[in-house]
Amino acid sequence: MITNEITETFCELGWTPKKNVDHYADKDIGDRVVQILFKVKDLGAYQKFEASFSIESADFTSAVKEIEGGRGEYNDLLKANVRNKLRIQQTEITRRHIEGTCAAAIEWAQSVDINQRYEDLCAVDPSTPGAAGVWHLAALALLGKTATLKSYQASFVAGNRLGFVNYITKDYIDRAVALAEKQNPPS
User: Which of 9, 22, 80, 183 is most buried, with most CB under 10 Å away?
Assistant: First the structure.
């Protein structure tokens, strides 16, 4: 199979193929969207197919977007499984291989405890570079950890950024507090 045939197979199996820099396919399975990032190489005597899996959650994506003030450029993957790539090397990659890949991706995605993932993100050091600080704020907000977020708010007012990357401003913290209060309204 070549990439176009693999893409067509994903479609036939109910997935939505897409392409940015890489080829991938998404499938909504209820409370999460499974994503398979894939590539195939024809190496003459055999083909090599590689895939890695990730999940997105509408709640997490929405929280990240809200905390960022509606900014459109964000990475909202809730969890990626890039260390355990699925690799298939056969004379020819077939539909059966793609079906197996889809089943493995769904099985992995369903094994991820989303609330535990939020807890893991709550434990991330706010000074972690990149998008991790926003993910940290989103997880705190989604779990209604208002007290923690309000302590961050007070620190920002006092001039202590707690190590957050420069683009995370007090406005981000304020929006995270507001979101947390929606999750866990004060009595």
Answer: 9
